[in-house]
């Protein structure tokens, strides 16, 4: 499941992944949230957090995410990913290599540092 988190700067999209992320999450929540932010900004910053309850992502959602990344390749100015589990961190680091903007991965207990880096 994906949820959009509030309380961040207007050009930051904050997403929390928990449970199992599927096609409907990407198409129903993530895509509209990105497109809404891009109506007001030429580029946005992304805060993508994997909650401790994150269980995985479906193949369809991975495909959607890849297509979304290609379509919005230059729309992100900076991306922060918050992940704790070893297997999640490995996946996140692999995804980070595919983005053309600065991407940094932080542990859950480093959220203050993540926010400072995202705000640079």
TrEMBL record:
Pfam families: SpoIIAA-like
UniProt signal peptide: none
InterPro entries, alphabetized: SpoIIAA-like, SpoIIAA-like_sf, STAS_dom_sf
Name of the protein described by the UniProt record: STAS/SEC14 domain-containing protein
């Amino acid at each position: 499941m994906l949820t959009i988190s509030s309380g961040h700067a207007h050009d930051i999209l904050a997403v929390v992944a928990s449970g199992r992320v599927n096609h409907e999450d990407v198409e129903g929540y993530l895509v509209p949230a990105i497109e809404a932010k891009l109506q007001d900004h030429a580029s946005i910053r992304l805060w993508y957090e994997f909650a401790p309850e994150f269980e995985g992502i479906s193949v369809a959602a991975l495909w959607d995410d890849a297509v979304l990344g290609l379509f919005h390749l230059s729309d992100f100015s900076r991306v922060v990913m918050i992940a704790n589990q070893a297997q999640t961190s490995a996946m996140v680091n692999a995804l980070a290599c595919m983005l053309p903007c600065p991407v940094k991965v932080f542990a859950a207990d480093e959220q203050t540092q993540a926010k400072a880096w995202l705000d640079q």
